[in-house]
Design brief:
36% of the residues lie in helices and 15% in strands. By secondary structure, it is α/β, with parallel strands linked by helices. It has two domains: 138 residues, NAD(P)-binding Rossmann-like Domain (Rossmann fold, 3-Layer(aba) Sandwich); 180 residues, NAD(P)-binding Rossmann-like Domain (Rossmann fold), CATH 3.40.50. The strands form two sheets. The chain has a seven-stranded parallel sheet, with helices on both faces. The chain has a five-stranded parallel sheet with strand order 2-1-3-4-5. Helix 6 crosses helix 8. The longest helix is centred in the last third of the chain and has 21 residues. It is elongated.
Length: 335
């Protein structure tokens, strides 16, 4: 791809040093559309020769999701979308494939920061940290504060054993847990299980036997409401639920009911079903630790993510390939 025309649909805020080097070598334009309809119109006009789109989530406020409708209007010249994010549920990758457009994302770059937040949420839920902090600020010190629980001796269940799930297992291995078990679409190799001290179980067993359940699977039609009313009834009474993946994986109404009846002791959430709107039952519950989707909200992580996107962009230009294609498109880039 020697005459690549690149369109930035979204901002590069941290890896500007890399972007500036690329600008000296390639034709790079900044997206200037003010609405989704204007962007669609521009795709047939001033963006008609674009071959690669750099896409970051901040542009979704203008263009909305890259769903089948929007993808149908992308220019025929487009070959690649390089996306800033590990989760890519805002892009219809099947519709892209039908048009021979291939998509990359940023796994690995988000592993450390997101796993750190998951570990923070687990410990904050165990030790009732938010309620304790609120109590202190209200001048009550420990008066009326309920006891926390220790992570030691507990069973941690990890749903989704990709990079983030494995990194969480590594983080939590120092807390003397009884066991770290996981469920994944595909069982990990024995070598990887041993490296991270993880034991494979089926999904039902994980629900039945875990004291702490942490969600790290992608959001797909199959994982929407993976934790629903039925699943909460299958869990141990007093379970702790943590979600740093995608909000729609948990039915928040079902979670609120499980919290109210004590089936779930506490919930730590960095993502929400109708983000940025949060279910009022979660906001009002004293044992919910709620964060505004800060899993990768560090300068270091954002730099790593943007660098990986720009590395994918350069790989597409120079070698007509992608370094980290989404799983659905990896079959086109086997090396």
């Amino acid at each position: 791809m020697t005459l690549a025309h690149i369109l930035l649909v979204g901002s590069v805020q941290f890896a500007s040093d890399i972007l500036n080097k690329l600008k000296k070598r390639y034709s790079i334009d900044y997206f200037a559309s003010k609405s989704r309809q204007e962007f669609i119109k521009d795709c047939a006009d001033k963006y008609k020769d674009v071959s690669i789109i750099y896409h970051s989530p901040d542009a979704q406020a203008v263009v909305g999701p890259f769903d089948a409708e929007l993808i149908s209007h992308l220019p025929p010249s487009l070959k690649y979308i390089v996306y800033l994010g590990a989760g890519y549920d805002s892009i219809n990758v099947n519709a892209c494939e039908q048009r021979n457009i291939y998509v990359s994302h940023t796994p690995m770059a988000v592993d450390d920061a997101t796993a750190d937040v998951a570990a923070i949420l687990i410990l904050a839920c165990c030790r009732n940290v938010i309620a304790a902090s609120d109590n202190l600020r209200l001048g009550r010190f420990r008066n009326g504060l309920t006891m926390g629980t220790d992570p030691q001796g507990k069973v941690l269940g990890i749903v989704g054993a990709g990079g983030i799930g494995r990194t969480l297992a590594k983080r939590m291995s120092g807390f003397d847990l009884e066991k770290i078990q996981y469920y994944n679409r595909h069982r990990l190799s024995t070598e990887v299980e041993e490296k991270y001290n993880m034991t494979y179980v089926d999904f039902e067993t994980l629900l039945n036997t875990s004291d702490i359940i942490s969600i790290h699977c992608p959001h797909t039609p199959q994982t929407t409401h993976l934790l629903d009313y039925k699943e909460f009834t299958m869990m141990k009474k007093g379970v702790i639920i943590v979600n740093t993946a995608r909000g729609k994986i948990i039915n928040e109404g079902a979670l609120v009911k499980a919290l109210e009846r004590g089936q779930v002791l506490a919930a730590g959430l960095d993502v929400f079903e109708q983000e940025p709107v949060v279910h009022p039952g979660l906001l009002s519950h004293p044992r919910c630790v709620l964060l505004p989707h800060i899993g990768t909200f560090t300068g270091e992580s954002q730099y790593k993510m943007e660098k990986l996107v720009l590395d994918n962009l350069e790989e597409a230009i120079e070698r007509n390939s992608l370094l980290t294609p989404v799983p659905e498109h990896s079959k086109f880039f086997n090396k």
